[in-house]
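Quick one: Acid phosphatase from Acer saccharum, structure tokens please.
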Amino acid sequence: MSAYAHQMERAISAQSLSSRGGSELGSQNVIESGFYMTSFTATIFIGGLVTVGVLLITLLISLAVMLQSCQSRNTGVVEFLKLNDDYSHCKIFTLHAELNGLEADEFPAICKGLAIQYIKDGQYARDINFTMGLAESYFSTLTSRGDGLDVVLIDIDDIFTSSPKCSNVLMDRIDQSWCTDCIQEAKHLMHTLTLRLFMKLRTSGWSVILFSRKHEGQRDVTTNLLISAGYRGWSSLIMRLDDEMQMDSREYLSRQRTIMQKDGFLITGLISSRMDALTGRSLGKRVFKIPNPIYYKFEHHTESRNT
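--- reply ---
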């Protein structure tokens, strides 16, 4: 090989080494340059972090508000369920108390309060109006035979007020928590609606027989009370004789109805607010139970409460 050829080979080798060296150096410079961020990009990044933080705080606040709302609702549901349980308990108790003729001292305090509220809220007025409407509708579809033997029986022991000053509206004034006045209003409403039914029956030609659990010795007083209250034209008034005073009221009333049917009377309807008159023998074709929240002598309880 010539000297020129050797020189060319060395020159080519030098260039190759120079190229590799430059390439390695360039790669090293790229690796060492690191991560670079402009100020604009950094601003956007920090803003994003702040936004995410605000959203998280808002979410936490919303969750706390929702939890508190759920707790409040649960409290209301518990209170409603307790009230509903009290009402159901008293409703069942009242039914059994009326069936068995329980006395006032056997009536739970919570039920006495609910009974007063039943009057004060106007529910008693709605119930008794509905019941009387049913009775009037029933008798309007029938025609009395006109022989005096087709009769309607009406219990008079719970239809009079002790004071005649009450208005026809059940709730005109309620000032007392235990409401002696509203009880009188309820009793007066019972009297008013019963008298209205009585007068409609008489106008339609029905024979009406009134009955009481009181002694025969009170007949004159009872008759005067009936007349002063507007009752006129009844067929007869049944009251207890001496030998009937010790008799259970259910047995006494059943016995009277049985005697009437044996004498040829047809009992077309029986109206009372007490269960002792609506159970037993010889009830007739149809019975009507007048709502009676005063059955447990709440007057006694209110007087005791106010003294």
